[in-house]
Amino acid sequence: MPGTEKFSVATDRKVVKLRPPESNPPTMKTLATLLLLAATLPLRSAETNAPATNEAAVVKIPDAAHAPARVTNTVTIAGERVTYVAETGMLPVLKPDGTSRASIFYVAYTRTGTTKATRPVMFCFNGGPGSASLWLHLGALGPRRVKMNADGSQPPPPSGLLDNEYSVLNASDLVFIDPVATGFSRATKDEKTDEFFGDAADLDSVGEFIRLWTTRNERWLSPKFLCGESYGVFRAAGLADNLRSRFGLYLNGLVLVSGVLDFATISGGTGNDLAYPLILPAFTAAAFYHGKLPPDLARDLPKALAESRAFARGEFTTALQLGAALPAEQKQKIVVELSRLTGLTSDVIKDNDLRVNQGVFRKQLLHGAGLILGAYDARLTGRDGDAAAAGPAYDPASAAVMGPFSAAMNSYVRSELKFEDDLPYELIAGVQPWNYGARNSFPNASDRLATVMNQNPYLKVLVCGGRCDLVCPIDTIRHSLEHMPVAEAARKNLSYAEFDAGHMMYINLPDLQKLQGEIGKFVRP
């Protein structure tokens, strides 16, 4: 009978029997709705101070009092046997009075038998905003990785985990950070969650985590690096400045993976033509991969990319700046060259007034075959069933990784790392609207990065990007770095590495091997 059912709720490894209040008994439909909301909006949960009774109980959220779990394991990396300790736990984000605002979930790997003062440590995070760090963690850097097909395409479910012989744990200790609302990280019950959803607040909370972890683990004298992917690159640039100015914590280097520094470079639209020339080389790389370039370009990717970049910086940019004043004859010449460099038909380019965005490109390049391209990795394709739609219905690249990574992380954290909690591990959390702190302008972290590089002449920056990334094309961050106000002497500390795949280039096995080598060289003295 409704109102008489008993329900079991797990609370910090205990099971409490509770009965819904008789005055407002939930139906099973209502209960299902509440559980769905709890899964998608876990930040609404709160820890109760009331005694456990039959009247009320809630799932206890993990906090910094959660005892860390530690396991020791070994992995063979580049032919070398590496023994390490994996620590999984929570650290508080402290207020000035010492009380906690939030608890941040982390997984830290430290190699045994090393000296802290000389052993590098790298703090790693993904982007979003709202993404947990499992992508870098189980895709590229950690000692275990998700089992994907060798080219990064989706394997049949369920997927699994492998020892990662291409981990960088042989060269650096690793700390993977899940910002507030992602993973198991949560604000305390008295805090407004959305106060963490913004550039400045994010830098304060993640910066506080890094300070506290560094202090508790006696790593102030260790060489320290940040590795951020996607929006994590924007975060890394700001964090380098935040850590310097707030704590006097100077970094040795930044690894910037598939990211953005200036949102104007990726946000094409009315009044901003900058993004269209900068994405053109990515279109060329994708067209090359799918065999859509003309014979003189189809056999030589470096040649095709060199021509694409020269045209993008020269004639194409000039034509876009002219706008409606562009003569018809010159416009037709631009159409022909764009068709040659992208594999798109002249009609598609004309219909879009030379300004082809990634959605149009993804829908049209293989339209005749009924295929759409991935946004995060244009090598990967799928079918969306609507040939007449203006753009693709989904991203095949995102679909390829979501299931395997979710299954792997949920299994790994509990079965191998021995960290248990009943809350869902939030891969992608709803953190919008995000306060970028910019008014009437595009968010831009280039100035902050320039400030740090000018004041710390030893700071190195490694930029890694996939040629088939249509979300954060590598030419966009290159443009930002070429235009930031950094002293010329500091530019020698910038280095670049390009990869064949897309945003998560490391899901492509040859790119993962290359990434290991690039980061390994970068962090070693």
Tell me what you see in this structure:
This protein has about 525 residues and is α/β, with parallel strands linked by helices. The protein has three domains: about 60 residues, no CATH class; about 300 residues, Alpha/Beta hydrolase fold, catalytic domain (Rossmann fold), CATH 3.40.50; about 130 residues, no CATH class. It is built from 14 helices and 16 strands. Strands 3, 4, 5, 6, 9, 10, 11, 12, 15 and 16 form a ten-stranded mixed β-sheet that branches. A two-stranded antiparallel ribbon has the order 1-2. Strands 7-8 form a two-stranded antiparallel sheet. Helix 4 crosses helix 12, helix 5 runs antiparallel to helix 7 and helix 7 runs antiparallel to helix 8. It starts with 6 loop residues before the first strand and ends with a helix.
Straight-line N-to-C gap: 70 Å
SSE run:
EEHEEEEHEEEEHEHEHHHHHHEEHHEHEH
Percent of residues in beta strands = 15-25%
How does CATH name the architecture of the largest domain?
A: 3-Layer(aba) Sandwich
CATH class of the largest domain: Alpha Beta
CATH topology of the largest domain: Rossmann fold
Which sheet architecture does the biggest sheet show? 10 strands, mixed
Helix residue percentage? 25-40%
Radius of gyration: 25 Å
Topology:
Layout: E1 7-11, E2 14-18, H1 28-40, E3 69-77, E4 80-94, E5 100-111, E6 121-125, H2 134-141, E7 144-146, E8 161-163, E9 173-178, E10 186-187, H3 199-216, E11 224-229, H4 231-247, E12 253-257, H5 275-289, H6 295-298, H7 301-322, H8 328-342, H9 346-351, H10 358-364, E13 372-373, E14 381-382, H11 396-416, H12 446-455, E15 460-466, H13 474-483, E16 494-499, H14 509-523
Parallel strand pairs: 6-9, 6-11, 11-12, 12-15, 15-16
Antiparallel strand pairs: 1-2, 3-4, 4-5, 5-9, 5-10, 7-8, 13-14
